[in-house]
UniProtKB/TrEMBL annotation:
The chain crosses the membrane at residues 12-31, 43-63, 70-87, 134-153, 199-221, 241-263. It is found in: Cell membrane. PROSITE patterns: MFS, SUGAR_TRANSPORT_1. Coiled coil: none annotated. Its main location: membrane. It comes from the Bacteria. This is MFS transporter. Residues 1-348 form the Major facilitator superfamily (MFS) profile domain. It is a multi-pass membrane protein. InterPro entries: MFS, MFS_DHA3_Transporter, MFS_dom, MFS_trans_sf, Sugar_transporter_CS. Keywords: Membrane, Transmembrane, Transmembrane helix, Transport. Pfam families: MFS_1 (PF07690).
Amino acid sequence: MSLKPHQLFYSVSFLQFFMSEITGTTLILFLLSKGLSLENANYLLAIFFLSVFLSEVPTGAIADKYGRKASVLLGLICYLIYSVIFMQANELWLLMLAQIFGGLATCLQSGALESWGVENSDCPIEKLFTTANSMQYISGIFCGVLGAFLAAYNYSFPWIASIISNIAAILLCTRFMTENNTGDHPHTVNSLSAIIRESVRIGLNHKVIWIVFIVGLFISFSNSAGNTFQQPRLVALSEQGVWVMGIIKAAYSLCMTFGSYLVRKLYNKYNDMVVLMLSCSMIGIWLVLAGALNSFYPVLVTFLVYEIGRGMYPTAKQIFLNKRISNEYRATLLSLDSAISQLGMWQV
């Protein structure tokens, strides 16, 4: 049995999204059940975002120097440690430690898997990312319903499902991930610091890339509060139990799937710059409307349209950046983009 590179990329992307989203459906509610306040929950999220910000570029350089497979596997192991600690711990300091491992896991996987997919697959970039993101969002439908259903019995059950999918991803990568282009990378003798410096220099010297990085910072900043507190807000406005978040999460995933699909259709008529600008507009306009309203159905509808924009933006940005970045520093530059975006999420 063997998997083609694009098939493995889709499979691992699916599992990555599944193991994070099945717990994300009730994450804030899970923290509240442990006796934490919303303020403490926000501190934990801030620690996660800060650890990602500080680790992104160094871990991207690890992928450029030692290979994409090593970075992805190490990231999955870190996520496994994060999940086990987070599921079992009630003490705030242990949850903080778990968030650090979660941040490392995110960093080690982010640019590495994306770079591996671009460099080893013969699929066009537009098809690779729109398909992968659509599959992720479809998995979010099952995550929303299954996560809320499991949490209704026990808040730990979604984390057990996450751990199982994590182990499956580790086994797939160990068995099937190969790097056909390893010999093409010139970083066998360069130091990590040299790779980081050169990657930052490339980013600064290409104004278009840098502008996209800054736009990502502002989008992350504007989205952070809404995405963090929408769970308790919508549950309170609906006057229903936690189960309602499963239905809402599934609806979000459908909208994000449509957003990713819409990007592929838009590329038939417009260039990548126009598509990226349209996705940014979808996020900004509808998030403002969602914040201005204060009753359940109007807020829900505006959030659903906003989620279409959220499905469009990552796909449009991935295509835009990967068309302008060489393999040599791809993982580090993609990690630099992620680090800048995470800085916008760090709000306390």
